[in-house]
Amino acid sequence: MHNVSVNLESRRECIPRAGKDTPYCVCNATVCDDLEAVTKAPKGTVLLFETNKRGERLKQSTLKIQSKQNVDSETNNETIILTIDKTVKYQKIIGFGGAFTDAAGVSLNSLPKQMATNIIRDYYSTNGIEYNMGRVPIGGADFSP
């Protein structure tokens, strides 16, 4: 594939390419778009990050939260009613992460050092998705070379 002129709105510098259905950004050793650190949303709001076929990539917007009694009975098509029961808890989340398999290590090791560093940052840094845990399989894993 080659670079093409596509409508792609990215939060940082991006090398756009046309995918089958949507454009996407290419990460290489010199350019790898990332995110600013996500901050807590103001009280009464939630942050929405949207990627869509129109070419918007991780576009950030803020949505206002209203209690059920404040929602009109004639809601428009943009309104989503979400019911949350704070008294029901299913599990405690202690973190998010990925596995450090030998296949992942071999793949990262085959890349230029800066690109491998960019990929690790994309997962574990405040400018990435902020994983805070890692799993190391003992005895082997799928896709092991």
Structural class: alpha+beta
Alpha-carbon distance between the two ends: 27 Å
Q: Helix-strand pattern, N to C?
A: EEEEEHHE
Please tally the β strands and state the result. Answer: 6
Helix content: 10-25%
The protein's oligomeric status is single chain
- The number of distinct structural domains comes to 2
Overall, the morphology is globular
**Uncertain spans:** none
**DSSP strand content:** 15-25%
Organism: Oppiella nova
GO biological process, one term: glucosylceramide catabolic process
Pfam families: Glyco_hydro_30
Domain Glycosyl hydrolase family 30 TIM-barrel: 93-144
Describe the structure.
It is an enzyme of class 3 (hydrolase). Keywords: Glycosidase, Hydrolase, Lipid metabolism, Signal, Sphingolipid metabolism. Residues 93-144 form the Glycosyl hydrolase family 30 TIM-barrel domain. Its EC number is 3.2.1.45. It catalyses: a beta-D-glucosyl-(1<->1')-N-acylsphing-4-enine + H2O = an N-acylsphing-4-enine + D-glucose. A hairpin with an 8-residue loop joins strand 3 (45-50) and strand 4 (59-64). The strands form three sheets. The chain has a two-stranded antiparallel sheet with strand order 1-2. A two-stranded antiparallel sheet has the order 3-4. It folds into two domains: 13-66, no CATH class; 92-144, no CATH class. Helices cover 14% and strands 18% of the residues. The protein has 145 residues and is α+β, with helices and mostly antiparallel strands. The chain has helices at 102-109, 113-124, and strands at residues 15-18, 23-26, 45-50, 59-64, 97-99, 133-135. The chain contains two helices and six strands; from the N terminus they run E-E-E-E-E-H-H-E. It starts with 14 loop residues before the first strand and ends in a 10-residue tail after the last strand. The model has no long low-confidence stretch (mean pLDDT 78).
